[in-house]
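tool=predict chain=A
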Amino acid sequence: MSKNSASLSHEVIFFDDFSSKKLDRSKWNVEITGHTVNDEQQAYIDSSETIYNIQDYPDTSGGALVIHPRYQHGYTTQDGRSFDFVSGRINTRNKAEFTFGCVSARILLTSGTGLWPAFWALGTSGDWPNCGEIDVMENVGEPDWASAAVHGPGYSGETPLVNKKFLFPDNFTTNWHIYSLECSEANGLIFRIDGKLIYRVTRPMVEFYGPWVFSAPKFLILNFALGGTYPFKTNGVRSPYYGIPKKTVQSIQNNDAKMLVDWVKVTRME
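tool=predict ok
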């Protein structure tokens, strides 16, 4: 392999360090939803209250993205659905897509039972789950772990392809961590936190349950859901909201629940 080809194999094809004053919409789409999935309790809106950049945040590259859920009692969507929470969800569809490579993001979370922030990738073709979903980082408000998962035809929802990484008290998810995924034909899907392997999904592991659908273009998603099936399965809370206890509602009302993203990067590996 020549030096030129070696350098190309690690070419950065997407990068955002959120150093501009506003979200760069040449790189990101902001999603607006009426209905929700997974019995989530929030509506996604396009607002500087829920999605914004901050400059000179401590221990960042110069700025950070903030996805900030808010309590907004009786918020009504365009299709007439009512929610008491609003939040943010952004993606890179048609703006930054990859097939194979490494995707990574440096993220800091706040804790709170029932919070559901995530960093993930979704295939561009077909409906879910046939398009394929790769969850690089999910968290349901418990600061001592983060999870990674893979969904596709025959292994969606209650997927058997999931793993939790438990963290030591001095390094919870409330600290900065780099969550990453390597996707390749040869090695399958490799998940890391701060460069350390936490989970590996091979093609035979996937094909035991259904077809491999991850050799196609994908786009990135950052979102902050509230409540719903995954949190409920962990915390068992039904009231005052499905998957969200009163203490977390108060945290959202006090504007304490946030996901901060220092940077997002996609590197071509093959």
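The longest strand covers residues 259-268. The radius of gyration is 18 Å.
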